[in-house]
TrEMBL record:
It comes from the Bacteria. It comes from Parafannyhessea umbonata. Residues 195-350 form the DUF4143 domain. Signal peptide: none annotated. This is ATP-binding protein. Residues 22-149 form the AAA domain. Keywords: ATP-binding, Nucleotide-binding. It holds the Pfam family DUF4143.
Length: 397
């Protein structure tokens, strides 16, 4: 069975003797976090307990305290380490405070419980973990899958990956387009919006949130001003509401509003965003156009290619420590700008929208230190789309 490289990281952390930190596995819904944990547990020669809040009749603080105490009992009075895995921890009310109390008690008493928590990316880093558990945890990220992973695990070709994206659970339906699209909508999109997004903050208009996601998925890879969004959405309120909802969708790992690159942060915030899905399946399963339409329509395929490149950049950004933007000045445009500290990379996607083929020279004249990356095409130094989607292209010098 295929294993992601994160499995060996988890195995190594579970085996560490001197590391007291809680390990937190985070990532968007349906990216294989639970599978990675069970694969890791199969490889360690340690006592362990795997529990999930999904199996609790009522996932509560009392349930978590009981499971933690059972793991303590397995240590034989502190004589041997025990790995405790708590999956879907974000469903437990006030879990950061509960975990903090249990963890701190173990540290004081010398109880060797090695805690590993897992859950959807949105409610974890943004739901109290950073405050309540400051200095007590390490993150292990589970991003959307790359072409390399999907090729090894499911035999995907480049064209398969562009349309089907990188959700492993959907791969079983790859040959049945209708079932595949239903799976993505019903198992990934709807629960993410109705559960994960709503757990992030106040959403007064859930119907607007869903409509905004559909609009954003349809326009993925394109600039769309907030005023234009208001014109296409009923009962949209104001631009502040839309910006807030897009921020929540971004934290949930489904859709983001890429800001325009500018050295002045104030200007960035005022700019029109470029909408971008975190996985191309969120785009293709939503619009219902079908694979044949994308193959026959060069403009639509261009947006699909740009969305695939953008999705890989979004997946790599947290681990590689960079922020992602796009850039335009007049008719000059660069598809993506990656910024890490003082390093800048300008990424141009050939085979995308024709309106986005210019602008690199203008951008480099303003930022001569930037690294130029061309994805696709036949120009000197260009990388292939296949290599880029396999994460084989370094983004910085």
């Amino acid at each position: 069975m295929f294993q992601r490289h994160q499995v060996q990281i988890i195995v190594s952390r579970m085996r560490e003797v001197e590391n007291p930190l809680i390990q937190v596995v985070v990532g968007p819904r349906q990216t294989g976090k639970s599978t990675m944990l069970t694969q890791a547990l199969d490889q360690i020669d340690l006592e362990h307990s795997y529990v999930s809040s999904d199996d609790a009749i009522v996932p509560s603080a009392e349930w978590l305290q009981t499971e933690w105490q059972q793991a303590r009992n397995m240590t034989g009075g502190g004589k041997r380490p025990v790995v405790l895995v708590v999956d879907e921890v974000q469903k437990i009310p006030h879990w950061p405070t509960v975990v903090k109390g249990l963890y701190d008690a173990d540290r004081r008493n010398g109880t060797p419980v090695r805690a590993v928590l897992s859950g959807s990316s949105s409610p974890l880093p943004h739901g109290g973990l950073e405050d309540s558990l400051m200095g007590r945890f390490e993150l292990i990220r589970s991003p959307h899958w790359s072409l390399e992973e999907c090729s090894q695990a499911f035999g995907y070709s480049l064209e398969d990956y562009l349309y089907l994206g990188g959700y492993p659970g959907a791969a079983i339906f790859a040959k049945d387009e209708k079932r595949w699209a239903s799976y993505v909508r019903d198992t990934i999109i709807e629960p993410t919006i109705s559960q994960d997004v709503l757990a992030l903050g106040q959403v007064r208009k859930p119907a607007l949130m869903r409509a905004l996601f559909r609009l954003g998925a349809t326009y993925s890879g394109q600039e769309l001003s907030y005023n234009k969004m208001l014109g296409q959405l009923q009962d949209a309120g104001n631009t502040t509401t839309l910006a807030h909802y897009l921020d929540l969708l971004g934290k949930a790992g489904v859709l983001c509003a890429l800001p325009k690159y500018d050295e002045k942060p104030v200007t960035r915030r005022k700019s029109s965003p470029r909408l971008m899905v975190y996985d191309t399946s969120l785009m293709t399963a939503t619009d219902g156009l079908g694979r044949a339409t994308y193959a026959a329509d060069s403009a639509r395929r261009g947006h699909l290619v740009e969305s695939a490149v953008g999705a890989r950049l979004l997946a790599r950004a947290p681990e590689e420590g960079f922020s992602l933007f796009w850039w335009r000045e007049g008719t000059n445009e660069v598809g993506f700008v990656a910024v890490r500290n003082a390093s800048i990379s300008a990424i141009e996607v050939k085979g995308g929208s024709e309106s986005r083929q210019g602008g690199m020279a203008q951008f480099l004249s303003r930022h001569p230190q930037a690294k130029r990356i061309v994805v696709g095409g036949s120009s000197s130094g260009a990388c292939t789309l296949d290599d880029f989607l396999r994460d084989r292209v370094p983004l910085f010098y």
